[in-house]
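To fix ideas, we close by showing one paired sequence and structure record:
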Amino acid sequence: MTYKIAIATSDNENIDLHFGKIKALAIFEVNEEDGTFKLLENRQIDFSSIPKVEKTESGCCCDSGFVTALVQIVKDCTYFLVAKIGNRPFRLLQENNINCIETPYAITEAISKVNAYYVLHKKREVFVY
């Protein structure tokens, strides 16, 4: 069985983007059984379809339509990996059943760690009564 991971990356090698700086997301498909993965696509964010992004003094756009639009873009993903993310977008992703993880790793290492976690917790769920 496979699942998808959305990753905030500028180079398809490292998880190096803050949530508010994302212009595209790398979508990887992971085989949970053997841990292999492949890049499926790079999803571009169509800013023209998003209500005006209003940034705060700190430069954050977490209170805008950007967050809602991004949740829709990754709704088919199980995990969302990002270098940094604020509380509001983190909460919205979680509320939409997308597990959000702040991680400083290279993509290959991060996917390995996430898959190990995924498999471990999936097995545990089988034994919950």
